[in-house]
Amino acid sequence: MPAAPTDARLSVRLDQSIKDEIADAAALLGQSVSDFTVTTLLRRSKEVKAEESVTRLTNRDRDLFRSIVDDEAAEPNAKLAAAARAFERRYGTDE
Known about the structure:
single chain, mainly alpha, 4 helices
């Protein structure tokens, strides 16, 4: 990771053995402990955010969801209709 101006700090208390393990890994990659820590934490934080933005369904729930979405005879309930109107007011329509 290229050196960049920094304006924030993160302090972590940990066992010496953990710090040594991190330092060894950083050295293997030719990075400072600080750069290794930042790149590793940033990569993992992005992974967590991506994982948490996905809803995983069982096959049964997926099939149920698809059957509801694909049901052309279904009418939206009052809350769904209100949400659609609010969305259109805020973002417009594609029509």
